[in-house]
Design goal:
The protein has 15 helices and 14 strands. The protein starts with a helix and ends with a helix. The radius of gyration is 22 Å and the shape is globular. It is of the alpha/beta class. Helix 9 links the parallel strand 7 and strand 8. The relative contact order is 0.12. Helix 8 packs across helix 9.
């Protein structure tokens, strides 16, 4: 029996019935298992601190909630745990894939990953490390104590215990559920609602039309990796961490580099995590900033798990308009012919939503350190 099956078994034995999840590449196998069972009420959270609040409400409503996240997300919840969970003595079990340790491929995970155990200890939060020599069944009593004694317990699970998924690069078969009015609009154009392009297809066309005055800020994970391998340029900034902050970085650059055109490569998952940045973009109105949302209805870099966009009622055009974006500067695209027509006038838009297929290209890591990426980007701006 693999670790993930053992873990779900222990949770089941303790009658944990609500799981609040946020994707991580290490969690892909357990998330796949959860999609095949109805034993737990699995709620996808767009930001980890929301999960803490939901867990508090679920407990007060008579449930036994737990969170399944990566350790980096613990940084987003420390204050909420202190001011809500610990203050009200609500129980909370947090199972975290421990990043930043043992052959971590992403440098941005390292600093927090090494410190997370001490930070939790400083808050007097009971923390245990699960490694390859651990017997998860021995934690059954510890998990039971969470709900009996109303305390917080964090299990930091080593990268070595998780079962490596084999389908990171396979296209997902789920059908993205677009809002009904968008589907009707597409039908009126005699087009297909289902997109034909992949992320890397878009990048090939996009970068062919860029100049050195066009700066690109690429989101963490596969967006950055694919852009690098398609057409690496010094004026492209590749994020390696801080998921949900790509548009914030774009504002900072656009506001103080008015002679440059800034293109932010967003995603539906990232936008759902940090929608609060949208009114700031509208309020500060940098005319040289264009947000390009590559919407594949999934968290691509963690294995293409569906995002909440798939519920079928989220419309980023309405959301951005509601936050102050000009309607004439918002557009949806789902096929390459429309993209090619738009490219010469790309900078005329504030928000461009491009629907793509949930497929990751088989490309390697970016062979640059974060400092090298940042330094050469800054040098390109000053040239």
């Amino acid at each position: 029996m693999i670790f993930e099956e053992q873990l779900l078994g222990v949770l089941s034995e303790n009658r944990v019935n609500v799981l609040l999840t946020n994707p991580c590449a290490r969690l892909q196998t357990i998330l796949n298992l959860l999609s095949e069972t109805d034993e737990f009420d699995v709620l996808e959270i767009t930001r980890e601190e929301h999960g803490v609040g939901i867990a508090a409400g679920a407990y007060m409503a008579g449930m036994k909630p737990a969170m399944l996240i990566q350790s980096t997300g613990i940084g987003n919840i420390l204050n909420t745990i202190a001011s809500l969970t610990l203050t009200y003595q609500f129980p909370l079990l947090i199972i975290a894939s421990w990043r930043g340790v043992i052959d971590e491929p992403i440098a941005a995970q390292n600093i927090f990953g090494r410190a997370v155990e001490k930070l939790l200890t400083a808050l007097k939060i009971e923390t245990h490390i699960i490694d390859e020599n651990s017997d998860i069944s021995t934690f059954k009593e510890k998990i039971l104590e969470v709900y009996v004694q109303r305390k917080v317990l964090v299990l930091l699970c080593s990268p070595r215990v998780w079962t490596k998924s084999q389908d990171m690069y396979s296209e997902k078969t789920f059908e993205v559920s677009h809002p009904k009015h968008y589907q009707e609009e597409v039908k009126q154009k005699n087009s297909n609602v289902n997109p034909s392009m992949t992320r890397i297809d878009v990048f090939k066309d996009l970068t062919d039309n860029m100049t050195k005055k066009d700066l690109i800020i690429a989101n963490i994970g596969f967006p950055a990796r694919e852009l690098y391998h398609v057409n690496d340029q010094s004026h492209f900034f590749y994020m390696t961490g801080s998921f949900g902050q790509v548009s914030a970085i774009g504002i900072g650059i656009a506001r103080y580099q008015p002679n440059k055109q800034i293109y932010v490569l967003e995603g539906d998952g990232s936008m759902l995590m940090s929608p609060g940045i949208l009114p700031m973009i509208a309020a500060y109105s940098p005319n040289n900033l264009t947000i390009i949302c590559l919407n594949n209805g999934s968290y691509g870099s963690t294995g293409n798990q569906p995002t909440l966009y798939n519920l079928g009622f989220i419309d980023f055009r309405i959301v951005t308009h509601g936050f102050g974006f000009q309607p004439s500067k918002i557009i949806n695209i789902s096929d390459r012919s429309d993209l090619m027509k738009l490219l010469p006038n790309l900078s005329d838009y504030q928000f461009i939503q491009i629907f793509i297929r949930p497929l990751n290209a088989e490309v390697g890591k970016i062979p640059l350190t974060p400092k090298e990426i940042g330094d050469r980007f800054m040098n390109s701006i000053s040239d």
